[in-house]
């Protein structure tokens, strides 16, 4: 009767098994430092353009909408404050992570999925190397380092976009914008703003790897794994965001 | 030397049943001694590839036991198998070269990544070059697998399988999908590897002529060609797999004189010419 639950339960079990092995491999030899650096370049440096673009425009549009609302109360001077808080607490981490999920969770799943269906993963095992050690752990470590860094860039570029829009549309003085932005932030904001992408990075890399490594069914299977990885990673980001936000809201109250 | 150390690969009543209930291998038992070459014949879907993967622990055994170099690998965790797998070279049916790496990087992969044989860079380059020279592919070091023909990819995969001089080699349909001339080149390389490095091998194939070549010819290092093995012969044993069951195990004469209709379908009269 409960046969329909077997699949999802087994999937969860396999995912946690993969997570455990990937984390345990951090302290086990051999360490594939070259692969970590390569993945940092692919995941981190490669994602900078998309983070710059989305960060700038999201900050700009937020300043525009905020400014219009605040104008009603004669409070346009506080635009910077709102933009910086929303960006650092929520939009920066979530937006950067969703962008990286779209680019890398799918990229990882398609790369590993292609390797799986062409027996390259089996070849790796047959050649006496651990695919989790060689493929999963480097991607996990690289994402964990690069996503918080990308989020910081996203936050700054977003504030920059907000400043451009506030100056052009509302004539807000530069000094006022940046002073209110800076003063609005407290350590709690910065803490959750950096913790969130760190936690999301595990969801992105491990979900990408998990769907990639369980790919079956040729090229169609690779396509399916790619889509599933992207959707699961993005949904996980929003769910985790709620929990982390709740914890920090609890801490600050 | 104790008997268990003379065995390179042993199956003891091995059965493999997949999750969907399909029985891929049924009660398989055989023992490959060191220095021996086994030819495993069987139609498509007979379980040949599953048997090879089971031998390396890539596919888990449902019943029975598998021994590699006298060591029971049944039920061992994946991480416990990596070191023993490093002593085996495997050629996959579709070569399974890493397509994002050059041929040189592919061949160097076992040397760079295995826990037991991580080699310094200065020693690695000559080893890779030697291995590629062995398969006559020195000119392809900087090429990617997609730039090579099917036969060249198969040869590059052989170079990768033998680069760290494993004592046991498993070949999964090395000539599948190749033209007769290229197939002959690949089989000649397998014979050369056997005779130069004195390795043990299990060759899975559906072509009887591949087994015939291995059983009756030797590599001549002076001429670089294959010569008839003559009266001394080679230490070759044939096995036939049918729907997951081992239906024959013995020498070439026994195989050719078998009255079984399935077995006789594989057997053709030996071709006398080679090289």
Written description of the protein model:
The complex is a heterodimer of chains A (253) and B (275). Chain A has one domain. The model of chain A has no long low-confidence stretch (mean pLDDT 91). Chain A is an all-alpha fold. Chain A is 86% helix and 0% strand. Chain B is of the alpha/beta class. Chain B has a domain at 1-87 and 168-175 and 200-275: P-loop containing nucleotide triphosphate hydrolases (Rossmann fold), CATH 3.40.50. In chain B, 35% of the residues lie in helices and 26% in strands. Chain B has a six-stranded mixed sheet with strand order 6-7-8-3-11-12, with helices on both faces. In chain B, β7, α7 and β8 form a beta-alpha-beta unit. Chain B is globular and about 50 Å long. Chain B starts with a helix and ends in a 9-residue tail after the last helix. The mean pLDDT of chain B is 86.
- Strand count, sense and closure of the main sheet of chain A? none
Q: What is the name of the CATH class of the domain at 1-87 and 168-175 and 200-275 in chain B?
A: Alpha Beta
Radius of gyration of chain B: 18 Å
Question: In angstroms, what is the radius of gyration of chain A?
Answer: 21 Å
Query: Which percent band covers the strand fraction of chain A?
Result: under 5%
Estimate the mean pLDDT confidence of chain A.
91
* Helix-strand pattern of chain A: HHHHHHHHH
Assembly type: heterodimer
CATH superfamily of the domain at 1-87 and 168-175 and 200-275 in chain B: P-loop containing nucleotide triphosphate hydrolases
Q: What amount of the residues of chain B lies in strands?
A: 25-35%
Task: Compute the separation of the termini of chain B in Å.
Answer: 37 Å
What's the N-to-C terminus distance of chain A? 46 Å
In terms of per-residue confidence, which ranges of chain B show pLDDT below 50 for 5 or more consecutive residues?
none
| Strand segment tally of chain B | 12
Distinct helical segment count of chain A = 9
CATH topology value of the domain at 1-87 and 168-175 and 200-275 in chain B = Rossmann fold
Strand order of the largest sheet of chain B: 6-7-8-3-11-12
Helix percent band of chain B: 25-40%
């Amino acid at each position: 009767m409960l046969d329909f639950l077997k699949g999802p339960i087994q999937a969860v079990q396999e995912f946690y098994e993969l997570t455990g092995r990937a984390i345990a491999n951090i302290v086990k030899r051999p360490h594939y430092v070259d692969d970590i650096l390569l993945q940092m370049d692919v995941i981190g440096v490669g994602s900078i353009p998309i983070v710059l673009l989305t960060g700038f425009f999201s900050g700009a549009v937020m300043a525009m909408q905020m400014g219009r609302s605040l104008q009603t109360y004669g409070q346009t001077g506080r635009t910077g404050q709102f933009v910086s808080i929303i960006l650092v607490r929520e939009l920066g981490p979530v937006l950067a992570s969703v962008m990286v999920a779209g680019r890398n969770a799918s990229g990882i799943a398609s790369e590993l999925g292609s390797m799986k269906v062409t027996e390259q993963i089996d070849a790796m095992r047959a050649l006496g190397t651990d695919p989790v050690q060689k493929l999963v752990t480097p991607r996990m470590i690289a994402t964990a380092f690069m996503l918080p860094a990308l989020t910081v860039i996203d936050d700054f570029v977003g504030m920059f976009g907000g400043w451009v829009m506030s100056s052009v549309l509302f004539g807000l003085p530069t000094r006022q914008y940046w002073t209110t932005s800076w003063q609005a932030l407290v350590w709690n904001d910065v803490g959750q703003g950096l913790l969130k992408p760190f936690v999301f990075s595990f969801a992105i890399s491990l979900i990408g790897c998990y769907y990639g490594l369980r790919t079956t069914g040729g090229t169609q299977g690779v396509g399916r794994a790619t889509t599933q990885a992207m959707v699961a990673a993005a949904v996980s980001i929003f769910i985790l965001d709620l929990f982390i936000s709740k914890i920090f809201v609890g801490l600050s109250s | 030397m104790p008997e268990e150390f003379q065995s390179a690969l042993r199956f003891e009543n091995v059965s493999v049943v997949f999750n969907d209930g399909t029985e891929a291998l049924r009660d398989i038992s055989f023992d490959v001694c060191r220095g021996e070459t086994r030819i495993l014949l069987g139609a498509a879907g007979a379980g040949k590839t599953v048997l090879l993967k089971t031998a390396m622990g890539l596919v888990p055994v449902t019943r029975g036991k598998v021994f590699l170099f006298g060591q029971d690998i049944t039920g061992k965790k994946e991480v416990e198998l990596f070191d023993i797998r490093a002593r085996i070279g495997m050629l996959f049916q579709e070569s399974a070269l890493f397509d994002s790496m050059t041929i040189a990087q592919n061949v160097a992969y076992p040397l760079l990544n295995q826990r037991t044989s991580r080699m310094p860079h200065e020693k690695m380059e000559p080893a890779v070059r030697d291995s590629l020279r062995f398969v006559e592919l020195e000119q392809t070091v900087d090429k990617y697998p997609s730039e090579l023909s099917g036969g060249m990819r198969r040869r590059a995969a052989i170079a990768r399988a033998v680069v760290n001089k494993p004592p046991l080699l498993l070949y999964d349909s090395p000539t599948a999908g190749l033209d007769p001339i290229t197939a002959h080149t690949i089989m000649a390389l397998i014979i050369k590897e056997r005779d130069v490095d004195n390795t043990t091998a299990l060759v899975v194939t559906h072509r009887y002529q591949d087994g015939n070549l291995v059983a009756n010819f030797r590599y001549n290092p002076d001429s670089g060609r294959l010569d008839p093995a003559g009266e001394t012969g080679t230490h070759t044993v044939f096995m036939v797999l049918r729907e997951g069951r081992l239906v024959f195990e013995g020498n070439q004469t026994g195989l050719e004189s078998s009255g079984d209709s399935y077995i006789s379908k594989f057997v053709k009269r030996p071709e006398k010419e080679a090289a």
